[in-house]
Amino acid sequence: MLTDDAQARARQAGLDLIEISPTAQPPVCKIGDYGRMKYELSKKEKDTRKKQRNFELREVKLRPKIEQHDYETKARMAERLLQDGSKIKVTIMFRGREITYTAFGKRLLDRMAEDMMPLAIVEREARLEGRNMFMILAPRAVPSGPPKFSSIREAEKEKDHKTPAAADVHPEEEPSAQDSHA
Questions:
Q1: Is 45 helix (H, G, I), strand (E, B) or coil?
Q2: Which domain holds residue 24?
Q3: Are 47 and 84 in contact (CB under 8 A)?
Q4: Rounded distance, CA 147 to CA 113, Å?
Q5: Looking at the domain assignment, is residue 102 inside a domain?
Q6: Residue 172 lies in a domain
């Protein structure tokens, strides 16, 4: 169709002539409301931005002389961050003379990497920069296996909510006085 004819039809309908594919031979156009089309495109763009996942780099700080319970708390926090889809920078801070024992820090980072293996991959190996040693963990696409640090309290709560098997069995009723006289 000629361009003039298409423009005349669009004016008759009270709409716009919208060029869809300008590079095609002949160019492809449609008749519609240009403002509405722009609005729908902006909504689609906004939805795709909303669904897009930006990886954040979150940090978990440790010390080389960390106690077992404190380590488990930090590991649970790291696990939660990985499940949320964030990358994790695990940092060990050395103070004073602790810097001479960087092997302790390396072992601690290796332990964290091993504990997070079902949820994460090591993106950057442990390395020392100044007085800090760090490594970066990235979440796996699909977590494999149950999390290593499940909450003990949650397990206890679940155990408490379940009724024991003995409670389901009803004790035999004692015969009433009427039954014994019959």
A1: helix
A2: 3-51
A3: no
A4: 13
A5: yes
A6: no
Sign of the torsion formed by the C-alpha atoms of 163, 166, 169 and 170: negative
In a domain, 20, yes or no: yes
For residues 4 and 2, give the distance between their C-alpha atoms in angstroms, rounded to a whole number: 6
Q: What does the alpha-carbon distance between residue 71 and residue 65 come to, in Å, rounded to a whole number?
A: 10
Q: How many CA atoms lie within 13 A of 116 on its CB side?
A: 33
The model carries a pTM of 0.51
pLDDT of residue 166: 46
Residue 120 has pLDDT above 70, yes or no: yes
One-letter identity of residue 13: A
> What is the sign of the dihedral through the CA atoms of 112, 118, 120 and 124?
positive
Q: Are 12 and 33 found together in one domain? A: yes
Predicted confidence (pLDDT) per residue in 149-176, tens digit:
554 455 455 555 554 444 444 445 555 5
Distance CA 142, CA 119 (A): 8
Question: How many domains are contained in the chain?
Answer: 2
Q: Are residues 47 and 61 in the same domain?
A: no
Q: Report the C-alpha gap between 159 and 161 in whole angstroms.
A: 6
